[in-house]
Amino acid sequence: MRSTDPTGHLDPGRGDQAGTGLRLRGRDREIAAVREALVAVRGGRGACVVVEGAPGVGKSRLLAELDERARRCGFDVVSVRADEFDQYAAGAALQSALQAHDGSPRAAAGLDDQRLRLLDSIADALEDRAQRAPVLVLVDDAQWSDPATLFALRTLPGRLAASRILWVLAVRSETERPTVARVREDLERLGARWLTLGPLPQRELEHIAADVLGTEPSTDLARLLRGVAGNPFLAIELVRSFPGPEAAEAAAGAADRLYRDIPAAFGQRVAARLHQLPEDAVRLVQIGSVLGREFDFGTAARMLGRQVGSLLSGVEAALNSGLLSADGPRLAFRHDLLRQAVHENLPPAVRAALHREAAESLRADGARSAEVAWHVVMAGGPVDDDAVTRLHTAVRELSSTAPDAAADLARRIAGLLPPRDRRRVGLLTDAAEYLGRTRRVHEALELVDTTLSDGLEPTQEANLRLVAAEIHQAAGDDAAAMTHLQQALDLPALPHELRVLLLKTQATGHVYLGNITAAERTDTGLVGASYRSDDPAVVVSVMVFQSQTSFYRGRLGRALELAEAATARARAEPAVPHLRPPRIPALWLATVLTSTDRLADAERVLREGQHEAEALGLGWSLPHWHARRACALLEQGALDDAAVEAEAGLAVAGDLEITQPDPQARAVLALVEIRRGDLARAGEHLRAAEAGSAGNARRYALWVSLARACLADAEGSGQAAAAAFADAFEDTEPTRLLTLPPSHWAAIARIALRGGAPSVAQAVSSALSTLTARDDGQEICAAVRAHVDGLLRGDPRALASAVAGYRSTGRRLALAAACEDLGELMAASADTAEAIRCLEEAGRLASASGAGGDHERLRRRLRRLGVPAGVPRLGKDISPGWGSLTESERNLVPLVVDGLTNRAIADRLHVSVHTVNTHMRHIFTKLGINTRVELTRLAVERGGAADGTG
């Protein structure tokens, strides 16, 4: 509902009886703070508020107050309230709340990593709503939220900071759940407003008592209120439940002594109230305290061995006592403190037995796996086979949206089983795999080592070592991965399918390490057996493997043929897209295309493949898509867009908490900044790339070496630049050279010659000779070979041939480099006119690519050749503000003005939403603004300039 009052009645004195009939007392400071947040969000800027405090201190009451005020101000309110067993829920309550409001069907859950898909779904829905009205997201009892919702709460307030969204979380103080602590850390880093609700002063408690009674409290009651330690809920319970001062006196003595967050005196009062109820009501309330804050009446009746109808009088008594309420489809405790008090008053052995029975009853009824899991954990074991199977399913379901929480649950369940139980080993193997998807990689590997020390059966050990190898490969430590794989393969009597999987992973490791001969030797029968497999993923995987070995041998045509066939087969088989990098067929195909004459096709393949990966929810693969797209764009000479893709990949990796983001992305950013002329930022990216590749000596080494060499060369340290390539090319095979796209090959030779290392340049030339001898059908390879030979021999004809060859390949910066090298050679031979012509063309190409540093270097060189300094012959200088926006950024502005969300813009431009997010951050930074509202205002004021026409 929208308010017609332009102020929205945001004053703290209005509407403060939300939902309870009682006025909100003693929280004027907090009301003022949330009022400021509402005003800020209505003005176009996102905000986040965290309300923290002990149970019963008034967090939910404050949220209800905020809900009512926001609705009067025209806010669209999305509200979520968590329960204890939500901690193990596989879905996202926040996503469910959004979809229920929109009437859209919920996305089917999968067993693959769905974190990014879920995150994007929530972000898209909220951004779409925020285009129509400001949005308030309320999450009560966030300390119990499902892991996927906590993931969204950690990530989205920052991502959607430019949208009109107010995030408000209520959380209990000093919660011990690690994922909640992470939410706190991330929101504090984002600048969230923290509101800590402390105890109310005595005078406010007396006001509350007067509100309840309709008159001022007596002196005796006022004295008793001091025993509730400033807790408003306990004060209300005291006033309502104990009108007689003698009874109240007996129960109010020790409110400052806590037992699991429940004041001891309060627990005694609840026990006294329960004792006054008929037995049916007592048993119903006790069973309900085990089932949860909200519970199904039918389930409680079955646990009591009763028909529902026979308990109606007990329900009525429990409702009349104020312990329970029936406002929704389920019975519920009026406050969780009431449930906790009843639950804690049960003897521990009785609690455990009831939780075990609840788990069995809920499992038989087909209840959510999360509920069953919570009760099993609360019961503490023992666990039968059926329960373990159900719990293992719950773990796997949870892993798709919260792998770290799934790992923790798996370990808790494993802890209920005997040490050498096969089921326990399976759970711990899964736990290690899930931890390996998060930043807790070291914890995953420690779990592997601990589990291996238990003395496992060969098949169990091989499966666990396979998981360890995949974790090491993902983290970049290929040597450690190969050690685990070999130890697994040495085990006796392994199932054939497992042995084949180990061999395939080992062969991939050899490819990572650049040892193609070893990859080709890995069980010569593996390829034939894979082609005979009924599993299409196995067939596609071996086709990619063959393509990789052909590629690194320099047989580019054959590699391309196999890669295209694998990609076509994968698109026809729904299970195949779940292959991991680098075996994703389309991702590998784009890598091959980037090194051939079909560079333009690489962009199409990457765009389509990335869109498919997002649609399928393969979030774990997106950093790889962004990194490869950044490489392809860098190869084209589109520096600005290459940088955006690299940054987007790093942002996605950060969202997914990938421990070792692809150093390629950082290396690309370093190379881009060197071209732009910002050597300080290039150095920052280089250091990050070096840290990211520290655990691997081969896979990313040449990318990092190239960035290191280019930076040293730009800083004038020729010898240090050449030293970066020491031992990089030990033979005439093109394997190492092919880890980089072709436009970088001549740069290696140039830097080596400039730094006094001609042997490196000669090694590059030899590798190119081998490459062109094995496949002479690629014009780009011939052009680079001519370029390198021209540099080695100082041959202008070879360099002119390289310039001619590059013109048809779509590689602007490679062409610019050849023009510059030819221009320098012409200047050295006193052919000044030809030198100026070549250098000017190089400058125009550099300017068109966004290579500001190259552009300025060429202008200085031209001045030394007599070209007037005042004539801007190489293109426009970059101006601040609107003039600093790239072409891609300018293309976004009119779409924002038209009211499109980031997702809609991404669909319109056929790019990833993460690419659009990165562009938007750049636009805001360059224009000195923070919100889409400000961008729209500036664009409208500027008129035609907003779309690049001014």
Question: How would you explain this protein's 3D organization?
Answer:
The protein has 950 residues and is mainly α. Strand 9 and strand 10 (331-333) form a beta hairpin. The chain is built from 47 helices and 10 strands.
Number of strands: 10
User: Which residues sit in consecutive blocks of at least 5 with pLDDT less than 50?
Assistant: 1-19, 104-111, 244-262, 871-878
Overall pLDDT: 86
| SS summary, helix count | 47
Q: What percentage of residues falls in helices of 4 or more residues?
A: 55-70%
Hey, roughly how much beta strand do the residues contain? under 5%
- Please list the strands of the largest sheet in the order they lie side by side: 2-3-4-1-5
Secondary-structure class: mainly alpha
Kindly, what is the distance between the CA atoms of the first and last residues, rounded to a whole number of angstroms?
A: 41 Å
Apparent shape: globular
Rg over CA atoms, rounded to whole Å, is 33 Å
**What can be said about the biggest beta sheet?**
5 strands, parallel
